Amino acid sequence: MDTCRWHAGGVTSTESLVADFSRWCEAVVARLPLGLNRLVAPTFLGFALINGFTFAVDLALLTVLHGWLGLPVWLSVTVAYICAFGLSFVLNRTFNFHSHAPVGRQAVVYVVVVVINYLAFILGVGGGLAALGVEYHVSRLLAGACEAIYMYSAMRWVVFRGRDSVVMSRSS
Predict the structure, then answer these.
(1) pTM strictly above 0.85
(2) 74: confidence class by pLDDT, cuts 50, 70, 90
(3) Distance (Å, rounded) from C-alpha 15 to C-alpha 76?
(4) Helices 42-62 and 14-30, axial angle in degrees (round to 10)
(5) Model confidence over 90-131: pLDDT tens digits?
(6) How far apart are CA 156 and CA 97, in angstroms?
(7) Rounded distance, CA 65 to CA 25, Å?
(8) Neighbour tally for 150: CB within 10 Å
């Protein structure tokens, strides 16, 4: 069964949206200057776009939970993080890495990757900076920069690897 999105011109299938996203990432990467098109995989651009969006969701939830509702920072960061990374998994699996592998195994591997990321970067870097007096949004942004490199690498070469996952890049 196909899910659809309605728009002014009719109905667009999820497969069409996925293909459009992939083609757009490939076209943008193909036009990068200075030979960067040979170094940057289209999946890296897709990851940056998707995770930029989910990071904004993370920060928005953090602001609502801590800034507006007054929940403790550790709880606000944790809830926002779980929501954002769940969304990231679904969007990256579908739009970026085009995975058709069984979702259960990938989800388990992803959870392990995310737990390592959470302990090292969110609690370690982000929590450490906040404990040192850095404003919580700034500490989260700095931790986010570290986790981006780790998460892309883990998603591309660990979570969504294998013959059942099609990675759209010139080199694996």
Answers:
(1) no
(2) confident
(3) 35
(4) 110
(5) 999 999 999 999 999 999 999 999 999 989 997 899 889 999
(6) 8
(7) 34
(8) 14
Radius of gyration of the chain (CA): 17
Measured in whole angstroms, the distance separating CA 43 from the mean position of its chain's CA atoms is 11
* Cβ pair 139, 126 in contact under 8 A: yes
Residue 114 and residue 104 in contact, taking contact as beta carbons nearer than 8 Å: no
Q: How would you write 129-145 as a 3-class SS string?
A: HHHCCCCHHHHHHHHHH
- Alpha-carbon distance of 144 to 13, in angstroms, equals 33
Average pLDDT, the chain: 87
The token pair that represents 168 in the structure block: 């759209």
| CB-based contacts of 69, cutoff 8 Å, min separation 6 | 76
